[in-house]
Every structure is written in structure tokens, then in C-alpha cells.
């Protein structure tokens, strides 16, 4: 079963949005983790699959 990055991105955004609404202090951590993951996938495309 292969899940593409295009299918994961909206799901991650939805979960992050809900978490930010519930706990606004998580915003900094969620944005930082998201940017790190996107940056790593950009530098090392073989990690994406």
C-alpha cells in the first residue's frame, strides 16, 4: 500500500489545524516540525518513497 505525499499533506494540515484550535500554544511546534519534515523531503526525495 503506497500513500503519496499529495494524499498525506491535506491530512497533516487538517490535524494540525484542529490541534492549533484546541491548544494554541502548539502552533510554534507544529509549524517547526512541519517545516523540518518538508525541508527534509525536499533535500532527500528518496525518503518520500
Please give a structural write-up:
Keywords: Membrane, Transmembrane, Transmembrane helix. This is DUF3096 domain-containing protein. The chain crosses the membrane at residues 6-22, 29-48. This protein is mostly helical. The chain has a domain at 24-49. The protein has helices at 5-22, 27-43. The longest helix is centred in the N-terminal third of the chain and has 18 residues, at 5-22. The model has no long low-confidence stretch (mean pLDDT 79).
How would you describe this structure in keywords?
49 residues; mainly alpha
- Low-pLDDT regions: none
Mean pLDDT: 79
Helix content, binned percent: over 70%
End-to-end gap: 12 Å
Give the C-alpha Rg: 12 Å
Given helix and strand content, the structural type is mainly alpha
**What is the total tally of β strands?**
0
Note the beta-strand portion: under 5%
Overall 3D shape: flat
Order of helices and strands: HH
H/I helix tally:
2
Report the major sheet: none
Protein name: DUF3096 domain-containing protein
Pfam families: DUF3096 (PF11295)
InterPro entries: DUF3096
Keywords: Membrane, Transmembrane, Transmembrane helix
